[in-house]
Amino acid sequence: MAEAKDGINGTIKGKVGNAVFYTMYGKNIIRSRPQLSRRRKPSLKQQAQRQKMALIQELLNPLKDLIKVTFAPATTNNAPYHVAKSYNLLHAVTGEYPHQRIDWPNVYLSAGSLAQPENCHVSKEKEGWHFGWNDNQGDKSDTLIVVAYIPEKNWIDYRFTGIPRFKKEYFWDTEHDNHLWHLWVAFRSRDETNISNSLYLGEI
C-alpha cells in the first residue's frame, strides 16, 4: 500500500499493484516493479556455449600475462585477453556437446601481421627441445617466442628468446618431466610493435 504524506499533493511512498512510489531529490518518482521469472533449464545450445567458455578460460587463464603482449597488435578497442578468448571460442573448440574439447592446431596464442616461421620443426633431446626453421620469410631481425603447455597440470612456460630469424635454430633447455607438452612458436618485430600469428608445432 502507498501512503500520501501531507495530502494528495504531498510525497507518496509505497507500492500499488506493480507500481512503486518513492521520493528522490524532492520529487515523486514512480517505477514498475521487476517481473519475476521462473528459472528455466538452459537449452542444449546454452549448455554447449558454457562448456566451450569453460574450456577456453581454463586454457587461457594461465596465459594472461603473455596474451597482454602477444595479442596487443591485433587489439584496438578491446582488451587483448578478450580478443584472444573470442577468437579461440570461435575456432579452437571441436566436437559436440557434452564431448567438446580443445582443437589444439587451431589454438592461437598470438595475433599479428608478421610472417610465421617457415618449415618450423622441433625435436626432443635429452636436456630440452631443439627448434629449427627457414629464414626466407619476414624480417631477419624478428625474434623468436616459444610457448609450452601441459593440459593435465594446466601449467605453461614461455620465453621471449631474443633469437633472430636468421639464426634458424634455438635450443630450449628445460626438464621434460615425462608429461605431454603442446608447443607453439611466433616471431615478434625487433621494435616489439608487431608479431606473427602463433604456429602450433604439435605434441611432444
Describe the structure.
By secondary structure, the chain is of the alpha+beta class. It is 18% helix and 36% strand. The chain has 3 helices and 13 strands. The chain has helices spanning 44-60, 64-70, 80-91; strands at residues 3-4, 12-16, 19-24, 27-32, 93-94, 101-102, 118-125, 128-134, 143-150, 155-164, 169-173, 182-188, 199-203. The strands form 4 sheets. Strands 1-2-3-4 form a 4-stranded antiparallel beta sheet, with no helix packed on it. Strands 10-9-12-13 form a 4-stranded antiparallel beta sheet, with no helix packed on it. Helix 1 (44-60) packs across helix 3 (80-91). The chain is elongated and about 80 Å long.
Q: Kindly state the mean pLDDT as a whole number?
A: 88
Overall form: elongated
Task: Spell out the helices and strands N to C.
Answer: EEEEHHHEEEEEEEEE
Order of strands, widest sheet: 1-2-3-4
Low-confidence stretches: none
**Share in β-strands:** 35-45%
The total strand number stands at 13
- Helical amount: 10-25%
The Rg value, from CA coordinates, equals 27 Å
Number of helices: 3
Sheet having the most strands: 4 strands, antiparallel
For the record, give the distance between the C-alpha atoms at the N and C termini, rounded to a whole number: 71 Å
What is the structural class?
A: alpha+beta
